[in-house]
Every structure is written in C-alpha cells, then in structure tokens.
Design goal:
The chain is an alpha+beta fold. It contains four helices and 19 strands. The chain has a three-stranded antiparallel sheet with strand order 3-7-8, with helices on one face. It has a three-stranded antiparallel sheet with strand order 4-6-9, sandwiched between helices. Strands 5-16-15 form a three-stranded antiparallel sheet, with no helix packed on it. The radius of gyration is 17 Å and the shape is globular. The structure holds 2-amino-4-trifluoromethylsulfanyl-butyric acid (MF3) and cobalt (II) ion (CO) (2 copies).
Length: 275
C-alpha cells in the first residue's frame, strides 16, 4: 500500500494511494463536516408522517446551496439527487421520491456537501412517528456500533480493529453487518482509498496513520447480511427484506486518536431527536 503526503500540488483525483492530509486539509474538512451535520440537524424537525423524501431532498439541496456548498451526489456516476433517503429495508442509496413517510418507518438520510472543495459525508437514522421497539433497537445498536468503530481509531490501530469493534457489537445483538458496501477515504475526492470494512479480525488490515481521513458508515441488518440491487441500479435492499440501519461520520486520524468532523452542532446524534 502506498501512502502519499497530500499537499496543494498533490493530485486531487483518486490515485489508489492513501493520502496523509495536512492541518489545512483538516481545517477544510471541519467546515465541510459542519455543513453536512447542520444539514441533518435542519432536517430533524421535518421528518414526520406525510413528508415525502422528495421534499427532504429539496430542503437538502436548498440548505447546501444557501451555504455555498455543492451537493456531491448530483451527477455523481449518474445519480441525480442531493441526498440518499433509505427507508426500512433499503440498505443504502435509496432515491428520493413522492412516497410519503408513514408512522413507524425508519429512514436514513445521507448527505455530502462540498465546501471549498472538501467533502463532508454523513448520515443518520430518523424515526417517523413511533416505530416498533425492534426497529428502534436496531437503530440504537447501529449508532453504538459506529461509535465503537470510531473509538478504535488511533495511529497504529488497524482497519481490522475498527471493523472488528463494529462486527462484534452488532453480532452480539444478533444483527449482521453488510459486506457489499464499505467506508472510504474522503477529502477533495468523494470516494478515495482506502476501503474501510465494517467487519474483520482485530490486528488485521492496514495500520492507521496520522492524517488519514475516511468515513465510518456501517450498515447493520436485522436479518441476514445479503443485499440485492433494485432494477433502478441504485437502491440496495436486504435480500430477506429485513430492516436495515446506518449511521455515517467522516473522521480524521490525529496524533493521539481521532477527530470526528461531522458531529451534530445541535447535539442531535441519534434519535429520538426531540426537536
Ligand atoms: N454518501 C454515500 C456514501 O456514504 C454515497 C452516495 S453516492 C450516490 O458514500 F451517488 F448514491 F449518491
Ligand atoms: Co454518505
Ligand atoms: Co460515505
């Protein structure tokens, strides 16, 4: 595996090398991460029965452009929306539509504003009305699994330590970790090296280094881990139609540990948000 110190003159495309980012990059990511988190904060009060995911997408688009940010997902590989809205058995990449949210739904909203060239990538789960306990438990465990993965991050720890922390916690609750999608390096490139798996063996994989910036975004299923793609080419659903949940933070490896760029300024870390 190659590492490269990312400077102003380094290529901003995905080269396969893992970028070790500068303090200036961290400053850029702090701003982008904040806009991303504030966007989800803004949506918290609006997610309720009767709202459509198309409306959520429009509010997301307007929020980002008002902040001078560009939605990274519009035109990304042919995707056309400012957000991904993944409902119930949708694992990820659900497309906004005129479908109205109904009491009991669980919804992931994933947003990625580009601010001054830097990508802030984050998602949270939202509860529509009062979902049943089994849905709320899945959401709670998924949040905690993501946080355990993030807490494993420091220089010298491995990507396997991170994946193991997530997998062990999820499986202890009899849930499964999706294998078909992973976290990713991020910065001036949306999806960069390395891949961050949300499962694995402690001590395996790549040793983390100060300056790495990537996402942690586990998708946890109530049933089996298998996923199938809908004919639209984007919407990934659980093969067994079980519920799926996901949270995502963008993080940077610091000298002593980890910095989370996408923490909610309003303290709306996980539902219920009580807005
Ligand atoms: N935000 C997603 C991620 O966490 C990627 C969405 S790509 C899209 O990596 F095209 F589906 F929007
Ligand atoms: Co995302
Ligand atoms: Co991501």
């Amino acid at each position: 595996m190659t590492f490269v110190t990312a400077t102003e003159t380094a290529p901003t495309r995905a080269t396969g090398a893992i970028k070790l980012h500068s303090p200036e990059a961290f400053a850029g990511m702090r701003k982008a991460g904040r806009v991303a988190a504030e966007c989800l904060d803004m949506l918290a009060a609006k997610v309720k029965p009767g709202t459509t995911t198309a409306e959520i997408d429009r509010w997301t688009y307007e929020f980002m452009t008002d902040q001078g940010a560009v939605p990274a997902t519009i035109f990304y590989r042919g995707y056309r929306y400012a957000s991904c809205t993944s409902l119930n058995e949708v694992v990820c990449h659900g497309m906004p539509s005129d479908r109205e949210l109904k009491n009991g739904d669980i919804l992931n909203i994933d947003v990625t504003p580009i601010v001054d060239g830097w990508h802030g990538d984050t998602s949270r789960m939202f509860l529509v009305g009062e979902p049943p306990l089994k849905a709320r438990r899945l959401v709670e465990v998924t949040y905690e699994a993501m946080m355990r993965g993030i807490e494993a991050i420091k220089p010298g720890a491995t990507t396997g330590d991170l994946g193991h922390a997530i997998q062990a916690f999820a499986e202890a609750h009899s849930y499964s970790v999706v294998r078909d999608f992973c976290g990713h390096g991020v910065g001036q490139v949306f999806h960069d090296a390395p891949n961050i798996l949300h499962y694995g063996r402690a001590g395996s994989g790549l040793a983390l280094r100060e300056g790495m910036i990537f996402t942690v975004e586990p998708m946890i299923n109530a049933g089996k881990p298998h996923v199938k793609l809908k004919p639209d080419g984007w919407t990934a659903v659980t093969k067994d139609r079980s519920l799926s949940a996901q949270f995502e933070h963008t993080v940077g490896v610091t000298a002593t540990g980890v910095e989370i760029f996408t923490v909610s300024p309003a303290g709306l870390h996980k539902p219920p948000y009580n807005t």
